[in-house]
Design brief:
Layout lengths: L7 H9 L17 E7 L3 E6 L11 H11 L6 E6 L12 H6 L4
Organism: Blattabacterium cuenoti STAT
Protein name: Fes assembly suf system protein
InterPro entries: Fe-S_Maturation_MIP18, FSCA_dom_sf, MIP18-like
Length: 105
């Protein structure tokens, strides 16, 4: 039996999957809003993310929620959330799970 605890990256992804786009009942990870997660020096994280549209109503609050929730992981000391619109988000970024949830499959 393998009792290996989840990696830090797995735990970050788990936290990201607990954050939902308020307009769509799908989490931001499966929606494809997270472009990159990088871990530096074991306790610093950089997350590159986007929004479904540049004028998204949660443009101010969603990146802050991502930062706050990822920073709540015990060994993480610093979280840098970078918001980008390059490339612009599109439905192709969604996971099959998200497409199924939204009836797009």
């Amino acid at each position: 039996m393998n009792n290996k605890s989840p990696s830090l990256e797995d735990r970050i992804i788990f936290v990201l999957k607990s954050i939902f786009d308020p307009e769509i009942s799908v989490d931001i990870y499966e929606l494809g809003l997270i472009y990159d997660v990088k871990i530096y020096e074991k306790d610093k994280v950089k997350i590159v993310m986007t929004l479904t549209t540049p004028n998204c109503p949660v443009a101010d609050s969603l990146p802050l929620e991502v930062k706050r929730k990822v920073q709540s992981i015990q060994e993480i000391k610093e979280v840098d959330v970078i918001l980008t619109f390059d490339p612009p988000w599109s439905r192709e970024f969604m996971s099959d799970e998200a497409r199924l949830e939204l009836g797009l499959l």
